[in-house]
Design goal:
Helix content is 44%, strand content 19%. Strand 2 (16-23) and strand 3 form a beta hairpin. It is globular. The strands form two sheets. A five-stranded mixed sheet has the order 3-2-1-4-5, sandwiched between helices. Strands 8-7-6-9-10 form a five-stranded mixed sheet, sandwiched between helices. The longest helix is centred in the C-terminal third of the chain and has 32 residues, at 231-262. It has helices at 46-68, 87-104, 113-119, 164-174, 182-190, 211-227, 231-262, 277-290, 299-302, 306-318; strands spanning 7-11, 16-23, 26-34, 77-83, 108-112, 132-137, 142-149, 152-158, 266-270, 293-295. It binds 5'-O-[(R)-(carboxyoxy)(hydroxy)phosphoryl]adenosine and zinc ion (ZN).
Amino acid sequence: MKDNPTILAIESSCDDTSVALLRDAKILAHVVSSQSDHKKYGGVIPELASRKHLENIVPVYNQALDQAGIESSDIDAIAYTVGPGLRGSLLVGSAFAKGLSLSLDIPLIAVDHMKAHILAHFIEEPKPDFPFLCLTVSGGHTQLIQVNSPIDMIVLGQTKDDAAGEAFDKAGKMLGLAYPAGPLIDKHAKLGNRKYDFPISELDDYAYTFSGLKTSLLYFLRERVRQDKDFVQNNIADICASFQGAIVDSLLVQLKKAANDTGITSIAIAGGVSANSGLREALEKLSIANSWDLYFPRLEYCTDNAAMIAMAGYFLYQSDQLSDLSVEPDPKLSMI
Ligand code: KG4
Ligand code: ZN
């Protein structure tokens, strides 16, 4: 084991093929190839995603080595996403990692994608102090985590049904917006007012639910469009502002409760939905009111990326938590 290993990291859990290289706990190279082919289907098609990973993985790997200016023989360990994610997509990354590990005769590090989203906060300054609370909001997950150390995390609560990003994307479909709809709803919401009432999720145990919100939007639109067929077109900004407002409130109710209950004042946010400007604004206000220290990773480290896998791999390597060839990808890997 080395004090300062050079770690190659591979992320392929969904529709982004990404490779990063890390040395001295710093990112040397970071390449992401995002698949745009899913747009026309209104969501990620798993079979298509795994085929694209197969096409992309070798060129992305070569590009990362070029960017870092190193040879494959300089790599000391290989970190890869073991789950959660799409089975076929995970298999491509895991098979590539295992093949390289065998040919270079170096260890493997199996990384939990959700923990890696949280550890993205350690790629750059400012880094949160321990313990901190992290709200991880993506297309597949919504979790509130108490982070005691890089390898000690407790799930305080999570969604019982849809993830926050999924709720944005499904609402977008109802509104005729392209996939992924989160950024588009965000854009429209900036121009609108919170004029319509949608339910806010306030469950016990820091849990979330977004299925009621989605159904309420469906019935609301059905009723309004029956009265005026141009309702969506003429009111898109207000509808988006109202729907986004309900998601943001639902996310922040539980965060505030957890911060009060635990007394933790370092607050972090991770995942693709943390790009949402309404969420960022509301969080900033809440932080000022409660004297929290707030941490947002740079946007490219919020969405799926291999730099966060490299960071997580570094912490696992330091604590001697290596993997081996027998470990299979786990699409439903859960921290609980
Ligand atoms: O973390 P991510 O890139 O991928 C995973 O799901 O792991 O998150 C993607 C999700 C999509 O659902 C997308 O609609 C949402 O993040 N998203 C946003 C915004 N940017 C991305 N949702 C709301 N507002 C945004 N600005
Ligand atoms: Zn993710």
